Amino acid sequence: MLEMPQGQQAFAIVDRIYEASFAAELWPEVLAAAGAISRSANGAIFVVSDHSPVRAITETHLQPLLDEFMKRDTWRFSESVKRMCAAQPASFVRVDNFITCEEIERDPVRKSATAFGIGPHLCTAIPMPGGELVLFVFQRWLKDGSYDQAAIDLLNGLRPHVARAGLVAGRLGLERARTAVSILREIGLPAAIMSGSGRVLTANPLFEGMADVFLPTAHGGMAIADQTANALFQQAIAQNRDNRVVRSIPVAAIKGRPALVIQLLPLRRAAHDIFSGADVLVVATTVGTGATVPSPNVLSGLFDLTPAEARLAVELASGHSVQEAAMEIGIAVKSARTYLERIFRKTETSRQSELVALLKSAWSFS
Q: For the HTH luxR-type domain, which residue ranges apply (predicted)?
């Protein structure tokens, strides 16, 4: 039997990622599949929060070892863990690039991994609106050598999806929510479920309490009060193909309410069954206030920009030209134009003026 090409394998994994965000027992399969295409020995998810113990899940055969390791609490003294939590890399990065050889040698996490024949680590961090930090970590056997750029690119192609799925997984505590009602309650954020055509099927009280943001329309549909955000929302619903709509939509702040991000997540496989055939989960999260231009971290979280792309986007949103922005962040104008093309694709914009308007709408104008 011929093996499926890596690109097709990655595409197939996307469905499983959104399924696992609601059916946590499937995360080990997703991690194993992502590990297979990146030649990883294993993968794991960690949810770090100031309000609850660190939660972690990995591939099934390694879960007992991970549970035991987390109980020992030695991971708290790991320099690599501290660096990743502090750096919060907006793409998968080689962890060894953030720590010295001496730190690696005395790091309890790396010592434990080396004892099992594990060497190089990749990590990305996804900050959540509620303060949680979701870390995705992949590791290779020592015998397989360092991660090449092709493997990193494959995982980065999955990152936008694990970021959105992490929003739900982090809130549900890496445990399965058995019913739509329990999910909408436990997620702790304004949320609603919709059909693929845009009809609202049910919503939680937090969502229903946002009548100034979400407006009912004919035939059970929904609109967003902010015109710019609503245009993006209606476009996403209209362009939905095979119930695969995925979108992050910023909503500008108004007096008395901070800026929001509306996330649209597809309900796939088991999640589709949990929600009795519904197709889309809509979740509203607060961005925050305090500046007229979003920070690079916020833009990375909203639109899955790399750190370099996010820095360029901030400079453009501040009113700089491409040439000025390139000079400000110390890159060639040619590189800046390449980054800008990527930003256009990720934000689904086509002109710099349109991009700037979208970026600024993600923050407070008060």
A: 302-359
